[in-house]
């Protein structure tokens, strides 16, 4: 029997936990694992380290802001 394709990263939960919670969890995980633009070097290398902490893989710049999506109020140069 062929392996069933999972439609998104929340697909691993199968029918458990309810559709609404799986959809919310999926959106949060997509935001968290995406790469964002670094405010210092302007490369798309800013990644999530822990809740509210973001680090650039290129220049090593660390910034705090936003739990699962970086919230940067101003450009840092």
Q: Per CATH, what is the topology of the domain at 35-77?
A: N-terminal domain of TfIIb
End-to-end CA span: 56 Å
- The total beta strand count reads 3
Cα shape = elongated
Strand content: 15-25%
Helix content estimate: 10-25%
The strand line-up of the biggest sheet is 1-2-3
Describe the protein.
- Strand 2 (53-56) and strand 3 form a beta hairpin.
- The protein is elongated, with a radius of gyration of 16 Å.
- It is α+β, with helices and mostly antiparallel strands and 77 residues long.
- The protein has a 3-stranded antiparallel sheet with strand order 1-2-3, with no helix packed on it.
- 19% of the residues lie in helices and 16% in strands.
- The chain has 1 helix and 3 strands, in the order αβββ.
- It has one helix spanning 19-33; strands at residues 46-50, 53-56, 62-64.
- The chain has a domain at 35-77: N-terminal domain of TfIIb, CATH 2.20.25.30.
């Amino acid at each position: 029997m062929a392996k069933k394709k999972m439609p998104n990263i929340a697909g691993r939960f199968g029918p458990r936990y309810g559709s609404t919670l799986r959809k919310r969890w999926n959106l949060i995980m997509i935001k968290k694992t995406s790469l964002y633009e670094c405010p210092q070097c302007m490369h798309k290398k800013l990644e999530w380290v822990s809740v509210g902490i973001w680090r650039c893989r290129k220049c090593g710049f660390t910034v705090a802001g936003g739990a699962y999506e970086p919230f940067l109020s101003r450009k840092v140069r």
